[in-house]
Amino acid sequence: MSTSTAVGRLAVRPLDPLQDAELLHSWLTHPKAAYWMMQDARLEDIERAYMEIAADEHQQAFLGLHDGVPAFLMERYDPVHRELVGLYEPEPGDVGMHFLVPATDTPVSGFTRAVITTVMTHLFEDPRTARVVVEPDIGNKAVHALNEAVGFVPEREIQKPEKKALLSFCTREQFERAMSI
Questions:
Q1: CA–CA separation, 88 vs 36, rounded Å?
Q2: Per residue in 118-177, pLDDT tens?
Q3: In sequence order, what DSSP letters do the residues of 16-79 get, joined into one string?
Q4: Is 159 helix (H, G, I), strand (E, B) or coil?
Q5: CA 121 → CA 18, 29, 87, 139, distances in Å?
Q6: CA angle, 41 as apex, 109 and 21 as ends, to 5°?
Q7: Nearest 5°: phi and psi at 65?
């Protein structure tokens, strides 16, 4: 999948846990990625975590490219089996999502919005996806605003083992409506 945006061409490819681990390590241990809770991770920890994702039929990781250069991370998971088990009543077609735009010395205006739009477009390209589910940290106000900009509606706070989170949903129709504004 590849889309042209105001900030350039964005594409998504499957993540290679070994080949991409060093890059991911630099992203995930940066203070900007504090909500990913991997600040103290070693390179081997990142490799192991993403090898586990690659071996799991209920989750996938993708590397996002900006004009061919790695620029963001995307994770997709089945909330029936991962992350949200027992925390809400899943519906058929629910897909969970995480994304990370790493810190940069040269920020591009509108880039993160283009990334989340690309991520959502990628998820909804699968006709089985009816609704995207997210559970960002309750304190991550920046991502709450981004989520709402692409159609997410917060439902309630939930307590996960590692954090208090804001459970939010976005249907295909809500996403399409947000994109038409």
A1: 21
A2: 999 999 999 999 999 999 999 999 999 999 999 999 999 999 998 999 999 999 999 999
A3: -TTTTHHHHHHHHTSGGGGGG--TT--HHHHHHHHHHHHH-TTEEEEEEEETTEEEEEEEEE-T
A4: strand
A5: 27, 28, 26, 26
A6: 65
A7: -115, 140
Q: What confidence tens digit (pLDDT) does each residue in 2-46 have?
A: 676 778 899 999 999 999 999 999 999 998 888 888 989 999 999
Contact 70, 23 (CB under 8 A): yes
Q: How far is CA 95 from CA 6, 21, 141, in A?
A: 27, 25, 22
Query: Backbone phi, then psi, for 162, in 5-degree steps?
Result: -100, -10
CB atoms within 10 A of CB 63: 19
CA distances from 152 to 33, 72, 87 (A): 21, 20, 18
